[in-house]
Fold:
Amino acid sequence: MNQIDEPQIKNYVMISHLKRAKIYRSLEQKNKAILEYGELLSKFSSSSKNNKHYLTAKIQRAILLFEEDQENEALSEINEVIDHHKNKKSIMMKTFVAKALYQKAIFVGKKGDLELAMQLYFEVHLTYKDEINVNIIEVVIMSLIGKAIAFETKGENNEAIQVYNEIDKQYHLVPERIIQKLVIKSMINKGNLLLHLERWGLAHEHFGEVVNRFNGKDEFKQSIITANIGIAIALKGLMKYKDSFDILNSINRSDIENSELIEELLNQYCDIGYLLTIEKNYHSAKIAFLNAFMDGNIFAGNNLSYLIRRYPDESDNFPNHELLLAEGLKINEPFSLVNRALLFIDENTNESWINASKCFSKINELESVIEWWHKLAANENDPEGHLVIGMLLINNPHHDPDGFSVQQRFSYVAHNYSFPEWLIASY
Structure:
């Protein structure tokens, strides 16, 4: 292919290739993007190895090659950038070499060589730590974060925390937005590690610092939400369930842009709702489950229906049982079926008992259902616990956790329920 040497035309052509490759990547057409980068490199291989567009294509092509399991070729591309430019002194060349070293560290780490990855992260930091160019500082911080994550992977958690502390100490005053985003990312990582280690008090304090430092800055809103969820988890670990709920309830759901963050918030609502139920704080538990249900969590709908039925309050203003259980009933979700069956039993007509029996007959996954209602029966002698296990035993007679027969189960609650004759005759 003919070489293109005119500077303006050359840059225009390179930029065109990069734009097309970016479009292909956005469309998940990685192989076409690889070809586009490759065509750029082929056209300008002899005259432009110091050009920023050429080097960008080189590194981006390597990233895609690695993602497509062409690991050796990816490493070859990265090594060429490092070997050809590592002794050059311009800021631009230092930036590209730092990026190449960082990317090589990612590659070898994913291949399982954590020691080499950590050496490369360390090399980036050692070589460029005194640079003041923002683009180089960005790569240095990314390398430190990579090193900390590698320590975590090895189980060397205190060393990881030291690296996160170093990032905050060295760079928290650098004003550029891109650097502050990395600083807050490092702080979030440290907080999550503290949660993983169940250092609840330290995690609570640390996430509080994140919120205090960055609160009110719109560009960091998602990180602030993450930190608030971290505070709620830490409070939960400290067994301060109502305080945890209050933090979760203060988060504006409409501010969340990340689906994974939404999922985490819903999971925490369900978790704290359960703990508040155990603590008999039924009002807050209902609100926690309602918040999760409104975003489509089936299990939250089950739990809210359960609480409304068992612990009604005149001030309650929640969706009706039919709505709360509808999605679960469509897929025969076990707890949805039990809750619907118990609502039928509350009606106490022959037809409602028949409908309840049909619900119980559809339940195939018994273990979790029996576990919950057996706790009620065993620990609190709750009539509903004995009733549910007894109804399940009619179709599954060998699953009683205490070895009781149906007759024994129902004998505990004979004065609580008016069993129809046909049901009594069936066992």
User: Anything to note?
Assistant: The mean pLDDT is 93. The chain is about 75% helix and 0% strand.
